Amino acid sequence: MLKPHCPNCHSKSCDHYASYETQHNGTRKFYRCNQCRQLFSETKGSVLEGFKKPISLIVQVLTARTEGMGLNVTCRVFNLLGFNSPPLAA
Ligand SMILES: [Zn+2]
Predict the structure, then answer these.
(1) pLDDT tens string 1-25
(2) Which of 6, 28, 29, 80 is the most buried (most CB within 10 A)?
(3) What CATH class does 1-46 carry?
């Protein structure tokens, strides 16, 4: 990921503070701002904040879409049924 910015004061002076294990999505990092001392996760304030899917999956999906894969096909290939596609008929 890019060098983090503090979501509170927007300082670029932030250091890695700790890492934590998410329930299903691997390890993520906590940073501490050297200006205001606030702790924040690496996805705080980013477009990825609140996403429950692994960041690696999001990158794969965006790459597939950039390469021209259709939205419905992308949802089926990456098992994202219910995200956009209707359930398959029985
Ligand atoms: Zn700050």
Answers:
(1) 567 889 999 999 999 999 988 776 6
(2) 6
(3) mainly beta
